[in-house]
Amino acid sequence: MNIDTELLGIARKVVGETAGFLRDAFYDEDLEQIVGYGAGGDTTRKIDLLAEKYIIDLLKNTGLDLMIISEERGEVKLSDKPRYIAVIDPLDGSLNYVSKIPLAAVSLVFYSVEKPFLTKALAGSIANVFLKEQYSFDQKHVYLNGAIVNPRERRFNGLISIYTENPYFIQKIRYIVEKYFNSKVKFRTLGSASIEAIYACINRIDLFIHNTGKLRNFDVAGSIEIAYRLSVDALKLDETPLNNIRVDKITMIPSLGIGLHLRELIKKLKNSS
């Protein structure tokens, strides 16, 4: 068995079981309790710690020599000589979760310690907790609930997920899309960056755009790999490479776009500056 096949199976099992844990706990009390701040900089709630402990315990039982990079605890070593890095986000969309909005994700992506860079993943899986979908990948393919997803021709429908703190940026995006792509545009922010980025990969929305400067590598590690395997553009908005972003520590991504017509959009954004 190839190592990426083995890691794919582990990733699917671990995120699937963690998603099940989160569904079972959804109506438990006091999960919204704030208990501090995580290594990634966000508020940590009780459910964040519970989900992180659950997924780390599952990873301990795999027998893999791992270094884990996680939103809450940062670096967790399960071996003195780790062979693999496991980048995890035990609960993406925790505010949705504690607000009883059923949109959240669990993600796990494996890397070799010898190639600790964002675009060098071996395998991974992201679970859409309440929709009960898993988006996974190995070295060659992307899978939706185990079935291969192939690249396909797309058309622009005018639905964009955007995270920004600059209202003028939204106006520019609307102007460019409506003028040059001949499409009316609607904006959505769903509260789970990993799911929204994957939706841009599989044509449920046209674009995922994030330029707050607060995006972390664990937020989108899996979706970037899925984009590449489906021949979907995934770029920083300044077009500098993603391949030098490290995954052996929590790293910020200043801006990111994934989806249809992204390169043309970036060029027109530059020309309109």
Tally of helical segments: 7
Largest sheet: 8 strands, mixed
**CATH-defined superfamily of the largest domain:** Fructose-1,6-Bisphosphatase, subunit A, domain 1
Mean pLDDT: 93
Q: Compute the number of structural domains.
A: 2
- The CATH architecture category of the largest domain equals 2-Layer Sandwich
Give the CATH level 1 class of the largest domain.
Alpha Beta
Beta content comes to 25-35%
Spatial order of strands in the largest sheet: 4-3-5-6-7-8-9-10
The CATH topology of the largest domain corresponds to: Fructose-1,6-Bisphosphatase, Chain A, domain 1
Total beta strands: 17
- Which bin fits the share of residues in helices? 25-40%
Q: What general form does the structure show? A: globular
SSE ordering? HEEHEEEHEEEEEEHEHEEHEEEH
Which stretches are poorly predicted, pLDDT < 50 over at least 5 residues? Answer: none
Query: What kind of oligomer do you see?
Result: single chain
Return the structural class: alpha+beta
Report the span from N to C terminus: 51 Å
Describe this structure in words.
The protein is of the alpha+beta class and 273 residues long. It has 2 domains: 147 residues, Fructose-1,6-Bisphosphatase, subunit A, domain 1 (Fructose-1,6-Bisphosphatase, Chain A, domain 1), CATH 3.30.540; 113 residues, D-Maltodextrin-Binding Protein, domain 2 (3-Layer(aba) Sandwich). The protein is built from 7 helices and 17 strands. An 8-stranded mixed β-sheet has the order 4-3-5-6-7-8-9-10, with helices on both faces. Strands 12-11-13-17-15 form a 5-stranded mixed β-sheet. It has a two-stranded antiparallel ribbon with strand order 1-2. β1 and β2 form a beta hairpin. The longest helix is centred in the N-terminal third of the chain and has 22 residues. It is globular and about 55 Å long. The protein starts with a helix and ends with a helix.
